[in-house]
């Protein structure tokens, strides 16, 4: 089947766009764009690339050879993805080199989802550009796990969910099947070397690549697809992009994409979410929850705790469940409120003239409130043991790190002066000015009320 390509993705120069422009034109409008001029000073572009512009595989084998990585066999489909193998970077490099010398019809291999930053935190391969730094997911995961203390997920957590910052490496012809990203998050992807061809589908056409039960998605848009099963595919229209070395592509939420490496390519990509795409994340999480519930409906009557099983399955299938999401939003809100409190103590004001940084955090809080209201109307959180204890949160070292990372990041994004990093005593003092530290956030309703209370209190300080 031939698919119809109706346009190309816009390209801009990173130097020509401020954070405010980017947020308004691309994050808020959920539009893809390719940005140049952000990667020139990255260490990765020096160390990882030979003078001829091809991957320096020798460098990988000597510096990171022992790492265990996931490698996709691009020729073999397994369920909805490619077959994955596990091997060391040295083995991967050997196979890649053998394949390109002998070219004897071996499978095309593609190293994917390598949590490089987690594994080598002291080797600064690159710096995330400010445009992509309002990243709640990775800031959170640097301090917390998505499913804490849940024995069943310890192993899964550490391997798969430690963060959403990845390195990809593959020879010419390696590719990624059609998909929309995890949690319907945004992604950005930078070519350290090599070229990619991207095909994008507008979210308004997503339903056309699913079967009539909205369960199975087309795997490869260039392969003969069963028209009876996927009658919508012939009506789809696609945007295309050829991404050159050094360029970064912004992939908005919910846009399905299929990707080809046109040359031997190394890329770095992150998944991230923030106030602009939180409703996408919520909508998918709720849909996945309902699907999970429906899939085990027949055992409901014989289960002691049906809800707990649903949440467990949801976390296993998607990487987070409703409880995790609620705790994530609670901690994130708390961090924003503490930082805003600190800002308003210092500047004696918090209003529409406040800094871009303060406005960003106010937007975060109002967006979380909206999503919590949706959660309430959908049925909320029913498990009794899911709550956030404020005292316990303050006592743990993670919260201090989390708030400091957040403060530093927002100051960097908006090019504002960073408040002196808060101490743990100051954390308690700031929090005490809008909440009772003995309190617990037990439900989305508690969180909405706490944010209201905080907002009333901080605007009380207005001159
Ligand atoms: O580069 C690839 O092969 C896939 C990357 C991708 O899907 C993404 O960045 O969202
Ligand atoms: Fe993707």
TrEMBL record:
Pfam families linked to this entry: Cupin_8
Cofactors that this protein relies on: Fe(2+)
Assigned keywords, A-Z: Iron, Metal-binding, Oxidoreductase
Domain JmjC: 117-289
Gene Ontology BP term (one): regulation of gene expression
Matches recorded under InterPro entries: Cupin_8 (IPR041667), JmjC_dom (IPR003347), JMJD6_ArgDemeth/LysHydrox (IPR050910)
GO molecular function: 2-oxoglutarate-dependent dioxygenase activity; catalytic activity, acting on a protein; metal ion binding
PROSITE patterns per the UniProt record, alphabetical: JMJC (PS51184)
Family under the similarity heading: Belongs to the JARID1 histone demethylase family.
Annotated protein name in UniProt: Arginine-specific demethylase JMJ20
Organism of derivation: Cardamine amara subsp. amara
Lineage: Eukaryota, Viridiplantae, Streptophyta, Embryophyta, Tracheophyta
């Amino acid at each position: 089947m031939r698919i119809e390509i109706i346009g190309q993705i816009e390209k801009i120069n990173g130097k020509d766009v401020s954070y405010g422009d980017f947020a308004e034109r691309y994050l808020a409008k959920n539009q893809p764009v390719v940005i140049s001029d952000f990667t020139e000073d990255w260490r990765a572009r020096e160390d990882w690339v030979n003078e001829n512009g091809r991957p320096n595989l020798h460098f990988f084998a000597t510096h990171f050879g022992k790492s265990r990585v996931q490698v996709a066999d691009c020729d073999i489909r397994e369920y909805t993805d490619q077959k994955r193998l596990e091997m060391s970077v040295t083995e991967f490099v050997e196979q890649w080199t053998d394949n390109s010398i002998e070219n004897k019809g071996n499978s095309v291999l593609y190293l994917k989802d390598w949590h490089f930053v987690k594994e080598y935190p002291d080797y600064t391969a690159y710096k995330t550009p400010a445009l992509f730094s309002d990243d709640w997911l990775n800031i959170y995961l640097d301090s917390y796990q998505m499913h804490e203390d849940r024995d069943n997920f310890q192993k899964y957590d550490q391997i798969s969910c430690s963060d959403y910052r990845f390195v990809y490496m593959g020879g010419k012809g390696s590719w990624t099947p059609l998909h929309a990203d995890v949690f319907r998050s945004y992604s950005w992807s930078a070519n350290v070397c090599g070229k990619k061809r991207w095909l994008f589908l507008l979210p308004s056409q997503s339903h056309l690549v699913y079967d009539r039960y909205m369960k199975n998605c087309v795997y490869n848009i260039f392969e003969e697809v069963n028209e009876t099963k996927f009658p919508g595919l012939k009506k789809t229209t696609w945007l295309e992009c050829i991404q050159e070395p050094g360029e970064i592509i912004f992939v908005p939420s919910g846009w399905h994409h299929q990707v080809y490496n046109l040359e031997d390519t190394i890329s770095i990509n992150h998944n991230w979410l923030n106030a602009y795409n939180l409703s996408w994340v919520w909508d998918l999480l709720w849909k996945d929850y309902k699907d999970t519930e429906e899939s085990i409906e027949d055992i409901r009557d014989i289960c002691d705790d049906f809800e707990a099983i649903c949440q467990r399955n949801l976390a296993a299938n998607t990487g987070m469940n409703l409880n995790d999401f609620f705790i994530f939003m609670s901690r994130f809100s708390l961090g924003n409120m503490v930082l805003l409190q600190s800002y308003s103590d210092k500047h004696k004001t918090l209003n529409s003239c406040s800094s871009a940084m303060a406005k960003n955090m106010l937007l975060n809080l109002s967006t979380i409130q909206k999503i919590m209201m949706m959660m309430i109307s959908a049925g909320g959180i029913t498990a009794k043991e899911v709550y956030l204890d404020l005292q316990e949160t303050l006592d743990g070292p993670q919260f201090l790190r989390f708030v400091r990372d957040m403060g530093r990041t927002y100051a960097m994004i908006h090019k504002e002066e960073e408040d002196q990093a808060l101490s743990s005593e100051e954390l308690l003092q700031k929090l005490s000015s809008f909440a009772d530290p003995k309190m617990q956030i037990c439900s989305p309703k508690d969180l909405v009320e706490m944010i209201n209370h905080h907002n009333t209190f901080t605007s009380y300080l207005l001159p």
